[in-house]
Amino acid sequence: xxxxxxxxxxxxxxxxxxxxxxxxxxxxxxxxxxxxxxxxxxxxxxxxxxxxxxxxxxxxxxxxxxxxxxxxxxxxxxxxxxxxxxxxxxxxxxxxxxxxxxxxxxxxxxxxxxxxxxxxxxxxxxxxxxxxxxxxxxxxxxxxxxxxxxxxxxxxxxxxxxxxxxxxxxxxxxxxxxxxxxxxxxxxxxxxxxxxxxxxxxxxxxxxxxxxxxxxxxxxxxxxxxxxxxxxxxxxxxxxxxxxxxxxxxxxxxxxxxxxxxxxxxxxxxxxxxxxxxxxxxxxxxxxxxxxxxxxxxxxxxxxxxxxxxxxxxxxxxxxxxxxxxxxxxxxxxxxxxxxxxxxxxxxxxxxxxxxxxxxxxxxxxxxxxxxxxxxxxxxxxxxxxxxxxxxxxxxxxxxxxxxxxxxxxxxxxxxxxxxxxxxxxxxxxxxxxxxxxxxxxxxxxxxxxxxxxxxxxxxxxxxxxxxxxxxxxxxxx
Length: 478
Fold this sequence. Notes:
alpha+beta; 2 domains; 7-stranded antiparallel β-sheet; 18 helices; Glutamate--cysteine ligase; Glut_cys_ligase; ATP-binding; Glu_cys_ligase
């Protein structure tokens, strides 16, 4: 049984179980044409319907794709699936299309804005989209990033009441809000916006910075800034009140850095429990072909696990307010300079390093690699972006990275498909394209439809196209 003392797990055996936590990734990214403008081509026709697709979706703009993995315990398997999905998506692009590697969009022309406003192919979301368009405008809505989900292992939660489970999850959330500024420093990658991104450039925004997206000028709203994290009850009350008074359209408009997720409704959290957390702070990493690296994911798994055991301060409300202000300050620091909070950052990361000593080598190495950025700000993504942009321009850098990533993904067999024979490779890729669930069961791969599942090795093509064969096996795809 988990032992909790003032929200703190202290049983060493249960602490070890945190290594079995699962992470998943959702990457938002724009399709662009090779001149650096948002693509006006339709969502790739090789991919299955967005009405049900578990892996490929789109967001506010038709060019704004969402690449969604399953949750995994192994960061190697997670990264392999993400790389496979990115490769499949890249292969489905038009010949003149690329993936924009930055979180803030390229310069958007008046014609682009008109096209985005008038073209949207997801009728079920049209009303909500119209609301967002009127309230925030297009530029705010087309910023992108990586969302990382986190779920505690079943073995850790076994025998726990809903209240105890919620207490542990929300303890992580509270510690995350206290430490968010650390991630903004380490992974911020939006140092500069396109000239017309802001309708009126904020006078306090002296670009370049560490992360526009994670600053008060980024992907946020007033309501999200004012939600209280002092208790789960306060958090839920503030969101419910904002919806009831019309400040928020629904819980989906809550743009906080972390969301509490429930498969059903948010109101069911208190009675049925939190299912997982969704962290929304990662800017796209233009130095990774998949937008977030395996090293980052390993670091983040250790980071979040540490938050589960790190005690909370006595004066939590004051600490949360102080941390919010610190994040705002760090986000707007010059990226190539040391942070004003370097000493605190190094001390915090040393504690994380100590916590990681019982983890496998690849996780310890990830912590060591990322922690070097504390004393070497030139290693942070924003500083690297600005150095590269100084040699050419931000747009030229982004286009060069986009071209490089496309070449890499087109030249390689998708990682999940590499160990398979030719027929199995075709079937796996077709399954992802069509929208079947792909599940790893020990050493086997299972393809799952709405009503049945088939082992990949049991399917024989015998000259039949892979898509045709899967449509025969799973008629709901037709």
